[in-house]
Amino acid sequence: MRATVQTKEIRDAILDATDKLLAKYGYQKMTIDDLAAEVGIGKGSIYLHFKSKEEIALSHVDRIVDRLCARLETTAASDLAPDAKLRQMALERVSYRFKSVQHYSQSINELLSSLRAKLLARRREHHAREAAIFARVITEGQKKNLFINGKPTQTANAFITATNALLPFGLSTKELGERKEIENKALTVVNILLRGITYHKEQS
Amino acid sequence: MRATVQTKEIRDAILDATDKLLAKYGYQKMTIDDLAAEVGIGKGSIYLHFKSKEEIALSHVDRIVDRLCARLETTAASDLAPDAKLRQMALERVSYRFKSVQHYSQSINELLSSLRAKLLARRREHHAREAAIFARVITEGQKKNLFINGKPTQTANAFITATNALLPFGLSTKELGERKEIENKALTVVNILLRGITYHKEQS
Lengths: 204, 204
Prior knowledge:
The structure is a homodimer. Chain A is mostly helical.
């Protein structure tokens, strides 16, 4: 048990250092030696936890998604109405990811170029995890006769797809400086989607 | 006049060769010498039209967008109802871009990684051109009392944003092999958006 806690602590410390050094040096220039020095452990200890620099950077993105999913779960379990939950969750996935990389928006292109193929493959799993949380709220809204019928997973995937272009992967360095504008774009898309799944009682 | 026509013909021939060689070699390995040989002109003639290999590749993407916009204009000017036009246009932007790169889906990651920053900067202008065509159809639908009121440009941008993640830039090599699946995703998003902007007469 203690060993597991330590493993998680060291992993987290390595990923915290990664976050800091990505901002400072960028992905290409960051070395395992830099990371070891930043954490205050030996280079060999890093390799006990991660196979390569690439795996560290990908795990760093995974951790952002883990934390985002924890937030989405909190919103999904809150007392808000289902439509308010979906709105907040969709905005959260955009603004949380945005904030996660904003301190290294200058070097992020280099990271996302270098890892493009692997990140795209990984995104599929990330998005499926998020979609599962959205689908539960959509089911809740359907049960309350707020949302029209339809496969909750398919609708959830539509919310994910429709906001995916607003995640850092799809944004230029310039756009990564325009938080308010990106959040407004997300809000417009999400409001149209929400109206699109809302049951209008008076409708024939 | 004749000179201008020739210029356009040679430019087009160079971009046709680019399309072919991107599929054959990929972006990194493709050289200006290869392109000159493929077109059957001297290397110097290529540089009369383009400053660099990078500019050639970006112009190649511009040409795809030019051709897409011509198709969108045709649909926008057709006899279809405004909602049917928007549906077809949104699907067209996904499937046309998809088909444009499908013959080099294996090497596209390398192209998109190499040009990531410049492409992202360029996308803004591409998307604004497309959004202008969507906005006209939305205005048409509002005048016919089919669509709810709202700023046509903002709604148009929402259609663009919501389908952007389904363009080749946001797809993995694996997903670039799944045309039907990508088109279905686009259709789900677009149908929800369309319902979201449609005026329901019976609604209070």
